Amino acid sequence: MIPAKFDYERAGSVDEALTMLAQHGDSAKILAGGHSLIPAMKLRLNQPGVLIDIGRIKELRYIKDGGDHVAIGAGATHDDILNSDHFGGGLEMWTEAAGMIGDPQVRHKGTLGGSIAHADPAADWPAVLLASDATIVVKGSGGQREIASSDFFTGFYMTDLQDGELILEIRVPKPPAGSKSSYQKFMQPASRFAIVGCAAVITMDGGSCSRARVGMTGVADGPYRATNVEDALTGKSLDEGAVESACADAAEGQSVMSDHFASEGYREHLARVYAKRAVMAAS
Amino acid sequence: MTYIGKSVKRVEDKRFITGKGNYTDDIVLPGMLHAFILRSPHAHARINSIDISEAEKAEGVVKIYTGKDIAESGVGGIPTGWQVNFKNGDTMKEPPHPILVTDKVLHVGDNIACVIAETKQQAKDASELIEVDYELLDAVSNPRDAAADGAPLVHDDAPNNICFDWELGNPKEEVDAALEGAHHITKLELRNQRVVPNAIEPRCAIGQYEDSTGKYTLYTTSQNPHLTRLLMTAFVLGIPEHKVRVVAPDVGGGFGSKIYHYAEEAMMIWASQRIGRPIKWTSDRSEAFMTDAHGRDHVTTAEMGFDKDGKIVGLRVNTHANLGAYLSTFAPAVPTWLHGTLLQGVYTTPKIHIDLVATFTHTTPVDAYRGAGRPEATYLLERLMDTAALEMDMDPTELRFKNFIPAFDGVEQEGYTTQVALQYDSGNYETVFKRALEMVDYDNFRKEQEEARKNGKYLGIGFSTYIEACGIAPSAVVGALGARAGLYEVGQVRVQPTGKVSVFTGAHSHGQGHETTFAQVVADRFGIPLEDVEIIHGDSDSVAFGMGTYGSRSLAVGGSAIVKSIDKIIEKGNKIAAHKLEASEDDIEFAEGKWTVKGTDKSIGFGDVALTAYVPHDYPEGVEPGLDFSSFYDPANFTYPNGAHIAVVEVDKDTGKVTLKRFIAVDDVGNVINPMIVDGQIHGGLAQGIGQALHEGAIYDDFGQLVNASYMDYTMPRADDLPSFEIDRIETPCPHNPLGVKGAGEAGAIGSTPAVVNAVMDALRPHGIKNLEMPLTPERVWQAMQS
Predict the structure, then answer these.
(1) Which residue range forms the structural domain that includes residue B718?
(2) Per residue in B361-385, pLDDT tens?
(3) Residues B607, B739 within the same domain
(4) Alpha-carbon torsion (A13, A15, A19, A22), positive or negative
(5) Would the CB atoms of B655 and A186 count as touching at under 8 Å?
(6) What is the pTM of this model?
(7) Minimum distance, in Å, between the CA of residue A49 and any CA atom of chain B
C-alpha cells in the first residue's frame, strides 16, 4: 500500500496543465479525483514519474445548459451530477447512474473526466455516454478536437485520448421530446462496479418506440452500444414481451467477460435482464 | 446507584470517534526504523537462492535479514498452544513454523525476508530489488483433497498431509446401529467455507530494546498481550520474560485473528536487539488477507437419523478440517474441542459420533474466527434439521419442538450432560424459540409465502436454534484436552486512598466495550459513581497477568475475577469499618457504598474506609494497610449461551440475488450488564454470520493463489445488505459464575449463518433444490434454479 516514488505538480489552469503534460511526456499522469489512479499506485500497478494535479482547476468544474445540449466540465464530480437539475427530459439516467457510483466520499472526489479517461470496463459512465450520443471535447498541443463517445472507448482500459491530451468537456445532446431514460445496474458486490450496467434512452411517438439508445457496460472488455437491441425496439409498442424479445441479443457479438462473480453465461443472461429492466424503466 | 442492566454509553467512544485513539501504528518512537516483509507470491515453491546484494545497497536500508540469519541465531519457530493426539495415541504432527523460511515457501504470503530501512517506503522499494529464485511445486488447498493419496505434500513428515485424526462421542458402532434402525436419514455434504477475519485495523508490531537495562518492549495489535509475551519469550526467542513488556494499546478489532503470536512480533523484537533501534512493521490490507489467520474451512458429510415420529436417533459426522500451511496458536483446538463437543446442539440426540481429519494445505493458517468451531457445528446441525423437515414433510419448527432438551436451570435441576463431553449449565431452549416465532409471526408468514409463490415471487424462511460453549475455560478440563495453557483470568482491584478505583484486567478490550461494562459491575458492587472507576488493560507491566479476550470469555471469566477481588475488598472493609464503628465484624454489612452497623444508623462511607486503609493511624490490629486485591478466577464450567435465529429472504428469480428481508434473533446470553453493548455484539456477529452465508469466502485457485485478496474482490457485508435486525433476549442466568453471565460476543456469528441458508433453501423449494454451497451468490443460486 505504499506507492513508488513520484513527483507532484499542481496545475492552476488548463493551459498550464497542457504545458506540463507536454513537458513530462510519457512519465506524467493526470490526477483529478484520484479514486482510480491512487489505489492502482498504492498497489504499484501504476508507477507514474510525475502526477499533474488538475483537481483544483475551477474552469473544468461545471455543468451548464448549452441550448441543445448539457455541457459537463471534465472536473465535475459524480456528486455534482447527482445533485444537478440539468438532467431531465430523457437524461434522468445521468443522476441515476451518479447515485450508484461508490459511496458519498467517492462521489465527492471522483470526476466524470477521470472516470472516462480511465475507461474501466466495468465503470458506469461509459454506458451512459454511449446511450446519450455524448461528445468528448479534448485538447492537446495540436489543438482542440471533439470525439464521439462511440469512437472514444476503444477497449479494455483504452480510449482514443492521445498523449498530451486532456479532457475538457462532455457534451450531452438533449434527446428528442418524449424521451425517457434509465440506468440499471447489477453490482459486483465487493467493488460495487457494474457486473452489468445498462443505460437506455427511449423515445416514444404515438404508442410506439421511435428511437432507442442502449449502452452497456461490465459485460464485455469495453462498453458498447447494443445496436441490435435498439433496432429491435424501434417501431415496437414496448410491452414486456416485446422488450424481452428485443433484449434477447443484448450481449450478441461481444467477447463477454468472466470472473468469480459472474461466468460468461451468467453475464450474458444478466445483460438481457438488465437491458430489459432499463428499457422498461425508460418507457 | 445501579448500573447493571442499563445501557450506559460507552466511555471509550469519545476517544475513538474523535480520532484520539492510540493504536499501535500511531506510536512513534525516537530513532524508529521501519520493516517490510518480503512475502511469497507462490503457494508452494523451493527457494533455490535469495540474492539481497542489490537491495542492501538501496537508499535508506539498514539491514536485510533472511531465514538463514534467523536459523543461525538459534531462535525457535512459532509454537502451538494446543496438542491433539491421533486416535491411536500418537502426538499430532507439529512441523516447524519458522519466522522467516529458509528453503521452501508453503503458502502465498509466507515470510521470506525482512528489510529494515529508515522509512517504510525505502524498505518497500528495497524489497523489490531482492531476487528470489523459485522452483514452483504443485499445491493443494482443499482439506479433503489434501488427504488423498498422491496429493502434494506440505510437510515431508506429515504423510497424506494429516496433522491428526480424532473422534468424539459414543462408540461408532452404536451410532452406526442407531442410524441403521432409523426410519429416515438425512444426509448432507457441506462445505463451511474459509473466511478472512478482516479486522478494521491491520496488524502492527513495534520492537524496542534498551541496551542499558536489557529490557524489551513489544507494542502489538494483540487480543492477549501476556500470552504473546509468554510464547515469544519462552518458546521463540529464549529471552527472560520479566525483561519483556508487551503492550497492546487500542486495538481495532480482532475476531480471533489477533489472539495468535505471529512471526512479525518476534521478528521486530529480535531485530531491534541486534540493530539497537526500535523497529515498526505495519501490515497493509493485502498482507492482512494473506497472513492473518483465516477461519472455518471444513468439508463435512453429516447424517442424522430420525424415528417415525421425528425424534432424532443418531448423528454421524465426518469432517476434514483445513489447518493451512502451519499450525497457528490454537488451530488444533478449533475443529476438535470447540466443534465436536457442540454436536449435541439443543437436542436430545441419544447417539453422536464425529470422525475428523485435520490436514495441512498450501494456504494461510486457519485458527479461531468469531465462533471458532461452534459455527461449523451449528451449521451442520441446523442445516440437517431444516433439510430433514423438508424430506419428512414436517414443519421445521415442529421438528425442533419434538427434539429440544427440556428446560433446566442448573440449580434446582441438574445441568444437562451431553454425548459429546460437556455439561450444559442452564437452558430454556423452547421458550427462546417460541419468542422468536412470535416475533416473526410464523403462521402469517406461510400464508404470505404461498401468495407470493402464486405471483412468481420466492420468499423463504429459515431457522437456527443454536447453542455454544463460551467462557473458556476450566483450566484442568482444557489441560486434559491438550491445552498448553490455563484459561483462568486475572482481575486486580485497587481502591486508591481517595476512594477512586483502578481495575486491572487481563481481558483485553478491542471493540467489546470492557471499559464500560466492567466499570458498571465495579461501580454497582461498590455503590460508587461510574466515573470513579477506571479499567486498565493491555499492558503487561501494569496488569499482573491475563489470558486475554476470545471465546466470549471476558465478562464470564475476567469479570468474575474482578468480582472476586471486589469481594476481598469488601471483606477487608468490614474489618476496618468494624474497628472504626466500634462494632463486631459480624454486625457490619456493606451496601450502597457504605458499611453500616446492622439495625443502626451508624455507618462509614467507601471513601473513608479507603482513606483509613492508606492512613492507618486508627486501625484494626493484624490488618495490613492498603486496599488492593488481585484474584485469579478459574471457571467451574463453560457457559452455554443459546438462541433462536430466523431469517426471511426473497430470491430474485431473474438474477438469483438473495435479499435478506427480516432477521430475528432471540438470544439467551444469561444476565445482561449493558443491553446496548450486547445489542452491538449481536449485531456485529449477525453481520459476519450473514456475510458468510451470502457474501464472504476466500477463493484459492488450482495453483494455491488467493484470488480475492482485496476489498475489490472479497465481499464484506455492508449496512445496505442487511435489514434492521429484530432482536430480543431471554435471560437464564449462568448458575456457576457470580455475575450469572454467559457471553455475547460470538452468538450472532454462530446462529445466523444456517438460518439464512435454510431460508434460501426454503425459498427455492419449488425448484426442488435442497443444498447449495456457501456463499449463496446470485450466480450460484441462479444456476441451481436453471438445472
Answers:
(1) 364-469+639-786
(2) 999 999 999 999 999 999 999 999 9
(3) no
(4) positive
(5) yes
(6) 0.97
(7) 15
